Fold this sequence. Notes:
Elements: H1 8-32, E1 40-51, E2 54-55, E3 64-65, E4 68-84, E5 87-100, E6 108-121, E7 128-141, E8 150-166, E9 169-181, E10 188-201
Antiparallel strand pairs: 1-4, 1-10, 2-3, 4-5, 5-6, 6-7, 7-8, 8-9, 9-10
Amino acid sequence: MFSTQRHPLRCKQRCFLKKLGAIVAFFLMCSLIPAAKAQIGIYGMGSIGFLSSVSDGNGANGIFSGGFHAYGGTFGIYDNLAHLGPLAFGGDGRFFIQSSGNNNAYGNKLDGGLAGARAAIYSHLIPFSPYLQGEIGAVNTNYGNQPQNSTSFAYQIQGGLDFTIFPRLDARAEYGAGQTGAVFPGQRQEMQQLGIGLVFRLP
């Protein structure tokens, strides 16, 4: 007589293949879904900026500009101008204002404006949208050691995630890294920023 009992290993294999097929089908559907319509988003974030230390390199007697953290806000606007399936391409422009205390009378100051290109992924099946941006602009800072600010060229690459909490309102988390001109000619300093905030998407 033949046993009607199912083999447990084969059952596990079938269950695994079904789950794997469902996952593959989900991502295939996401890739075929057209992106959202061209959309403008206005955002504001609480942000932390970090400027690395730098030295003029003249040995023990050299002048040294120490790194610092500064706290404030980042505000900007983006526009998705072109679409390719779930991908959206456009531009972003922003400004940020950050400062913090120091052991001198000048404090730590960092502010500026950046603009550039962005790419994002949109899907109607998932409530979040990852994005990547490359931007250039100008940054003002007192390097934490002088009363006046100096302005220099800067660039930054930003990556983040927008998570939909209401139909036109997203929560945002972002990290950016780049460089800006140093207080000493011919040198550059690392500039990193971390932000958490909200995005309002216009109709």
